[in-house]
Fold Glucosamine-6-phosphate deaminase.
Amino acid sequence: MSELFKTQEITYNKGEAIKVYEDKDIASAYVAQRIARIIKEKQNKGDRAIIGLATGSTPKGVYKELIRLHKDEGLSFKNVTTFNLDEYYPILPIDDQSYVSFMKSNLFNHIDIDPKHVHIPDGTLSLEGIQAYCDLYEKKIVDFGGLDLQLLGIGRTGHIGFNEPGAILESRTRLVTLNDITREDAKDDFGGKDKVPTQAITMGVQTITQAKEVILMALSQRKAEIIKKALEGEISADIPATFLQRLSHVEYILDNEAASLLSRTE
Ligand code: PGA
C-alpha cells in the first residue's frame, strides 16, 4: 500500500475489514484505484469488468477521481459494463433527480464508456411490467458472470441500495417503498419532501451480497450513528446493512467522522 493511502487500521472487535481515512478525498481515491485495478486486470485478460455503481453524495469523489484517471492517466472504460443499484419510481431519465441524470453528469458523460454497456433500473415502466423487468436485470448480471465489485453508500435508515428496514437477506431486484427518513434526506434534491417519489426499484440484499467484492463507503458525522449500528448491532432486517457483517468479501471505507462512534479494541 502506497504512502498516499496510509490508513488508520482499526482492530475491530468482530474483525471486519474496516479502513478509516483522515480525509474523504483520500478515501475516494483509494476506492477509485480499486475499481481501476479491476478494470485493468480485466483488460489484460481481454475480459469485461462488471461493476455495480451507487448514487448519492458519498461516491461523488470516487467518480471524480475515476474521471481524472481517465483524462490524465488514460484509464479506459471501453471494457466496462455497469449496473446501478437503484432508481426512483416513477421518474423520467431526463429528470434532474433521476439516477440516470446523476450518473451522466457525475461520471458517464466524462469517460469513454459505451452507453450500451450501462444499466440503470428503468423508472418509466408500467407497474405490471416491473417484476419481469427486475427478473431480467438479475439475469443480465448473472449472464455477465456476476458483479466483480459492488460499490455502496449507506442511508441513515441503514439501507443499502434502497433496501429499507424490513428488507430480507434473500431479497432480489424489485419495486420497494421508500422510508420516510430517506425521503426526508432527498427533499433538497426534489424541492420538497412531498415531491420525492414514494417508491423505487432496487437491487436486493442478495443481489448485492452475491457480488465478488463489496465496498461500503460512509463519510461524515451524519453517518456515525448508523455506521455503529450497521457494524456493531445485531444482524437484523431492521438495519439491512447489518446483513453485510461477517461477510469476508465486504470492506468498509470510512472517514474519521463516520467511524467516530465505533468501539475499538486498541
Ligand atoms: P448519501 O446517500 O451518499 O447521499 O449520503 C447514501 C445512501 O442513501 O445510500
Notes: The two ends are 22 Å apart (CA to CA).
